Amino acid sequence: MKPAPCSASDSLPPTPCLFHVLSRWSPCFKPMRRRGTYARTVKSDQSFRIEARLTHIAPRAARIRPNLNAISVMFAPSFPTEKKTHPFCSKTCAKNSAAQNPLLESNVKGANLELLTGGGIPAFVKDLPTARESLTASIHSSTDSASFRTLLRTHHAVVACFTDQQWSPPCRAIVPVFEKLAEEKGVRAATGGCGAAFTKIDLRVGEGSALASEWSIYVTPAFLFFLDGTKISELKGVDPGELRTQIDQLLFQAYPPHPHSSLPLPAVEALSLAPILFTQVPPLDAVFAKLASFIDAVPPSTSISQAKEVLHAQVAPYLKARFAPADPANPAPQPSATTALLTPWVAATTVLAEVLPIDALFPLVDIWRLAVLDPDAAAWLASSPGATQVGVLVRMARDALAEPTQNKGTRNYVLTALRLLTNTLGHAALARVLLAGTGGKGGVRKAAASLAFNAASRVQRARVAAVAGPGGATIDSADSDGAAAAMDDEWQVQLARALVEALDHEDGEDVVHRLVAALACLLRFAPADGQVGALFMVPGARRVVMGKLERERL
Predict the structure, then answer these.
(1) Is 484 helix (H, G, I), strand (E, B) or coil?
(2) Which parts of 188-338 fold into alpha helices (H)?
(3) Are 459 and 273 contacting, i.e. CB atoms less than 8 angstroms apart?
(4) Most CB within 10 Å of its CB: which of 84, 302, 392, 549?
(5) How many other CB atoms are there within 10 angstroms of residue 505's CB atom?
(6) Which CATH superfamily is domain 133-255 in?
């Protein structure tokens, strides 16, 4: 049942949607143009109106996190159950159109997924069919009926050009236009596998003339447009403008815009998706002195002495040089980590992680937190066994959280490990690290919320690029795993449930800001028939956010 319209004096509609609640809750909104409140009416695709007030935010909210500019979302309380939309927007659509989505195949072949996932291909990679098309050729070759029908069967959208370039001047005029459009609007990994497959049938090559007769083509040039193997339109003659229009219409039908695309969401669109990084540099001399005192407290051995020497002679000079205060009058390039430094550093970390108690390891983890801010160090960790050692440090933090009690040293370790893990998500190749749970003091919860935001923002970036479609925003090749994560509905549901649970028990302002921002990133452009949207149709999830809203009296 649709909720009744509310008046400007009402604080919320009778049955507010989760995005309405988020827009009221998060104090990270962009400050309004004037003090006070004003009402805005949003009309959804289902033609009902939600009227909500956006309240001016106190200046203290702006100090919390400058790059979280705004969360102001007003959505219909339920997702429409329409036909399939963009491949990122529906698991069903993703499965049906996986044959024309080469993103997965190219990523699996070109990336060391086994290393990043700790010894196996992720479930979402295994479950998806592989593509059978090539991204290197913008135009496919069809010389007979069998090859043409195979192309129709394995691609969601197909544009076919029947031509006789040898004897037809009009064909020679339009074919270059067709080839350019194929480059612009063909299937590309950068757009999440969206686009049409373009094929050219020359009547004088192979069985081209027989194929033309099969499709009743007696005049060239002629263009046929197919959706899921069914011809939906055709075009004959030389008309570049109409050809482009027909292709755009085909792509619109093949990949219709997500329902959220038509809603005004300026605050969410302004939300910075840049990762939250912990860049504070502590007094390095004090950090290394503290770590040395912990090392000296354990029984000596050759390996321990070697580890201590590596930290003192190699790691400390590198970090001091890289994070030295900048001199505007005499700028100098920052040194980068090398294999000669990182290999013994990882070995030393392995030794110390085995002999030191967990409450004595936080200085070691803190220097790794700084190291992963170096792109060269992060790239090396992602492409070498060193990434395994980072995972060991994080798992130690997870195990520490499972203990019924933690002392101050253990809490310091957990806090520092979460900050390390948060920084790893700032680098695409290290962003597949997953933390199972959070808890503890406010600093730990804040770091965990930052980690959750970084993970959710990567999903949002991939969705924005995918919804933009051919010719729009693209997914950076280095961040192609974010595209895969955007299709992993099960992983997103687990993260969303954890965020709701954390929000239910959280009172800290900074932490709530980041939890709400992460939820917004997971919900915007979520699949219309996916599990994430369904999760927030459950009264329990909505009640958590509504209860938080009521307690804070916003």
Answers:
(1) helix
(2) 208-214, 240-254, 266-269, 284-296, 302-310, 316-322
(3) no
(4) 84
(5) 10
(6) Glutaredoxin (3.40.30.10)
